[in-house]
Structure formats: structure tokens, C-alpha cells
Specification:
By secondary structure, this protein is α/β, with parallel strands linked by helices. The model has no long low-confidence stretch (mean pLDDT about 95). It folds into 2 domains: about 170 residues, NAD(P)-binding Rossmann-like Domain (Rossmann fold), CATH 3.40.50; about 160 residues, 2-Layer Sandwich (Dihydrodipicolinate Reductase, domain 2), CATH 3.30.360.10. Helix 2 crosses helix 11 and helix 7 packs parallel to helix 9. The strands form 2 sheets. The protein has a 7-stranded mixed β-sheet with strand order 8-9-7-10-13-12-11. It has a 6-stranded parallel β-sheet with strand order 2-1-3-4-6-5. It is built from 11 helices and 13 strands.
Length: about 350
């Protein structure tokens, strides 16, 4: 499938590996309304043999999930989305790249450029290190033309997405102290995945708030790597788990280099996202409910002397995962960036 064929109306044939998880199911939901894409293959390792509609009754699909580890290489797809935990895409990704299939990985396997970091951060040895130099780290608003060049795309994690969208407008202009970036991230429970744990057990999290992995979260190296091309930066990050289903609110505390007015802070955001159909500066602190079910990002800044606070709200399953992957696909194939992503928020 070429970009020209997609622009002329030929359907993009898509496969999803990991369709039994929350992010994979969200891909199924969003791609069902995509005007230029047809999902032709689905795999869900733990629920193979089950129909998508039985596993997720909100999805109107009778497709049967295949077992990815036992399936032959799909040769009838133009693009494969991987929505798998760390280390589970190493075997299949290089095979798809060899046959010329576009790969978009929603997991962490190609986010870090240094293969040695995978042992430190994820506790695994990277089995396809040559893929790291080929992968495009795709935060779409900041990826420039690189999305049109690569056949392997790595989607940022949900926490880095919310944080970086708030940090980069100021970092790349050199307007903040690079070693004074503090991120407070609050996530809904779906950010922890569909697997059951004690921390996400209803009696343990309902009516409470839990901070976890203080100063030791695996997304920090990813955030700091994304800043390297803009002179670098050091992030102090504390994530919190809250008892709601979906959404991430990132509160980012920064210190400016020199005086900065409210008008200037707002202008830096507006200029950074002027061409983005999804990022919007809002007049008051955002609420995650206002972006629920969408690929939208709401961003708000407040400045007092040299203290800058930026807040971003995203849906972790859409903008933080499936929607961002589709946004990247649209750009790769030269489609309208909003195709399949025009949903209004689900409110209340």
C-alpha cells in the first residue's frame, strides 16, 4: 500500500496484535469509523478463539481473535498495530518490517534509543536493537516530517504524552530552567491495564488516591530522551492512580528563564499548536471529562513571576494510545489527520 493509493481511496488493511487489551479494543472502536481503513486481522494472546463482541460487548464485531504467537505472518495487511506489554513484540516486528508492512507499536519496545536502557528500565534485554535506530518516536505535533519516512513508529506512553505536550512549547524556546521540571501525573485505572492487581482492586482504590513509583517510573527516561533534541532537561515525576476509568491530568511545575508574562506564555502555546487539530488552549484549568473518548488535548498555563504551572488533560486510551497511533497512521499515508478521530467528548 502506497501513500498515493491511500489518497486515491484504496482501503488500508489493518491488523491489531493485542486486541484483547484496553488499548487494542480502543483501536478496534476507533478504526470502525475510519473512512480509509478496514480491520482484517485481530490477535489477542490471552483470549484467542473468542469473538471481539463477546469479549467487549460495546463493540459491534463478530471477528474472532487469533493467537498471535501461533499465527503465521499476516501477508494481507498494510499496517500492523502492536498493543502489547514490554518485550512481547520483538519476535514479530522485524518480520513485518522485512515484508514492507508499516508497524505502529503502542507499547514501549521501541521508545528508547539505547538498548542497554531496556535492562535497567524494563528488566529485559532488547532482542531487536537495530530496530531502535529505525523507529520514529511519534508525538505527532513534534515529529515534523519524520512520520512520513519511517515504517516503524513508536507511540509515546500516556504519561509522557500529557507531560511533553505541556513542557515542549517552553523547552524548545529555552524559556525554562532545564533542571527544574516537575510533573504530577494523575491517571484513571485503565492506565494500569486490564490485568487484575491488588492496587487496582475496587476496595483498594475506590475513594482513595495512590502515589506510586516515586522518582523511579519507567517513563522518565522516555521523557528526558524526547527533550534531548531541544537541549535536554531533567524531569522529576510522580504518578498517581485515581478511582476513575480513563483520563490523565498532568500538572507541570516549571521555573522560567527571565521574566515571562501570562500573554507570552499563552502565545508560546498557541504558536506551538497553531496547526494541530487536536491541541487546544483552554481558559481555565482542564478537566479530564472534557476530553474523554477523544484524541483532544486541553492545555492551560498560569504564570506568576518566574513560576510557571501548565496543565494538560488527555484520554489515556485515545490520545495516550490508540488515537495517537491512528493520528500517526493518517500522516504516514497522507490522509486527513482527523480521519477516524472526530469524536466529541463523552460528557457527563
Amino acid at each position: 500500500m502506497t501513500k498515493e493509493m491511500a489518497q486515491q481511496g484504496t482501503k488500508i488493511r489493518a491488523g491489531i496484535v493485542g486486541a484483547s487489551g484496553y488499548a487494542g479494543a480502543e483501536l478496534v472502536r476507533l478504526l470502525a469509523s475510519h473512512p480509509a481503513t478496514e480491520v482484517v486481522r485481530l490477535a489477542g494472546e490471552s483470549r484467542a478463539g473468542v469473538s471481539v463482541g463477546d469479549l467487549y460487548p460495546h463493540l459491534n464485531s463478530s471477528a474472532i481473535l487469533e493467537k498471535a504467537s501461533e499465527s503465521p505472518l499476516w501477508t494481507d495487511v498494510d499496517i500492523v498495530f502492536f498493543a502489547l506489554p514490554a518485550g512481547q513484540s520483538f519476535r514479530l516486528v522485524p518480520r513485518y518490517l522485512e515484508q514492507g508492512t508499516v508497524v505502529i507499536d503502542l507499547g514501549p519496545d521501541y521508545r528508547l534509543r539505547d538498548p542497554a536502557l531496556y535492562r535497567k528500565v524494563y528488566g529485559i534485554d532488547h532482542m531487536f536493537p537495530e530496530g531502535l535506530s529505525r523507529a520514529v518516536y511519534a508525538l505527532p505535533e513534534w515529529a515534523g516530517n519524520s512520520l512520513g519516512k519511517g515504517s516503524l513508529v513508536s507511540c509515546p506512553g500516556c504519561f509522557p504524552t500529557g507531560a511533553l505536550l505541556g513542557i515542549l512549547p517552553f523547552l524548545h524556546r529555552g524559556r525554562i530552567k532545564r533542571d527544574m521540571i516537575f510533573v504530577d501525573g494523575k491517571s484513571g485505572i485503565t492506565g494500569a491495564g486490564r490485568g487484575l492487581t491488588l492496587e487496582t482492586h475496587f476496595p483498594e482504590i475506590s475513594e482513595g488516591v495512590l502515589a506510586y513509583k516515586l522518582l523511579d517510573h519507567r517513563h522518565v527516561p522516555e521523557m528526558e530522551q524526547a527533550m534531548e533534541g531541544m537541549g535536554g532537561g531533567r524531569v522529576t515525576f510522580v504518578p498517581h492512580l485515581l478511582p476513575f476509568n480513563r483520563g490523565i491530568l498532568s500538572t507541570i511545575y516549571m521555573v522560567t528563564e527571565g521574566p515571562c508574562s501570562q500573554e507570552e506564555a499563552d502565545r508560546m502555546i498557541d504558536e506551538s499548536y497553531r496547526d494541530s487539530p487536536f491541541v487546544r488552549r483552554v481558559a481555565s484549568p482542564p478537566n479530564t471529562m472534557s476530553v474523554r473518548g477523544t484524541n483532544n488535548v486541553h492545555i492551560h498555563a498560569r504564570i506568576q513571576e518566574d513560576r510557571l504551572v501548565v496543565l494538560t488533560a488527555i484520554d489515556n486510551l485515545v490520545r495516550g494510545a490508540a488515537g495517537q497511533a491512528i493520528q500517526s497512521m493518517n500522516r504516514i499515508f497522507g490522509l486527513n489527520e482527523t480521519d477516524g478521530l472526530r469524536q466529541e467528548a463523552l460528557f457527563p
